[in-house]
Design brief:
CATH architecture: Orthogonal Bundle
Oligomer: single chain
Number of domains: 1
């Protein structure tokens, strides 16, 4: 996964594919958002930002509470769905 995280556009494409797979499997929007939240939590704890966009997301994640982080997750899902 590390090469996926090097470039933000590559990350968005990867996430878009995973969101589409989830929808094809019948996952609800809420379930997909919850999974995005879990991924965000993992990345925050285990992965150093590889580019400027990831640094901004990490800073927002770090200053937010759980509801803010869920909002960021939901917005990331929406972002990749529109791409």
């Amino acid at each position: 996964m590390s090469t996926v995280l090097t470039n933000f556009e590559t990350w968005k494409h990867f996430l878009k594919d995973r969101v589409a797979q989830g929808k094809n499997m019948g996952l609800t929007e809420e379930t997909i958002t919850n999974l995005a939240f879990e991924i965000g939590s993992f990345l925050d704890e285990k992965v150093d930002p590889k580019n400027e966009e990831e640094r901004v997301l990490k800073q927002l994640w770090d200053v937010g509470d759980q509801e803010d982080r869920k909002t960021i997750s939901k917005l990331m899902v929406k972002l990749v769905e529109k791409a």
